[in-house]
Amino acid sequence: MAADMSLTPHPAGYDEDLRLALEDILIGRWLSTKALLANTRSWTLRTSRTQVLAASAAKGDAIAAWCAEDPGDANALMMRARVMTHRVLAAHRSTADRHTLLPRVSAARAACEDAARRWPADPVPWVCMLALAQLDIDYRQWHLVEHWANAPESMLPRGPWPLLWQVDRRDSPNREAYQRMLQCFQARAHGAVDFTRWVASQAKPGSVLLTLPLYAFVEEYRTRTASGQVASTLGFWTNDQVQYYVGLARDGWFAHITDWSTCSLVDLNYLAYTLTACGLPGAAEVFEAIGSFATPAPWQHVSESRWWQDEFLQARNYALKRRSGR
Prior knowledge:
It contains 17 helices and no strands.
């Protein structure tokens, strides 16, 4: 399969049903979202679809209208929790004043709890509560006890482990839940890499959790580069530990995939970037899986150019030429 050389970034990626629902939600219509969720048969797909839907729905009032029309609908309550969580996290990124966010955090958490009570088997409200935990970064200030629980092993930091176990009970392994745990440790600037290495050591062949260390390494590279701590790009990405985990994601996860359209496009883009940065073989096949659906992350995090697409295209061209021997 030859890679499509044009780029058509879209949050829905290969998911055409999600694409149609997104188009409607952006103009304030929620019926197609209701139908989509009613026909989503796996927790994995439910989690990923609702994460994308919430980012678009947060720009308008479609979910509020749905809840007003059908206040007892479990999917409507879950999407309300999703949207409120997304808005709180977006507000946090734009303000340094945590205290002004506390009422909104509490309201979002209450929405999550409402959704969890309405459908106890649904992992998504618990994933949202995990996402909110990244705002609770200082144990000396306002905090929830469950956000600072002891880890299952001594080498790991305290964190919202009880929330992760709640998700695991319902859908294990849930990709977003582990991503949210990682974001919590990154927000606290402690334990992120150790957490991802531990997760990877527990993951089974074919598990998407083998991609988790890639996120930790890209963020470490970004922050160290920004602060002038990285002497050379090559030196960082040729580190034996970094190369080991990038190769593990390639061989332990990507090599097991039989249908690329079921993968997170962000995971594929992270793998393509890290394989290229490390100089490891296999990036061309990952770029083929991505096709035209490049994602801003991680390229915009590491790009020296104004346009992250240039970084993507340069890496893809290099990988394809390397495979062809040119």
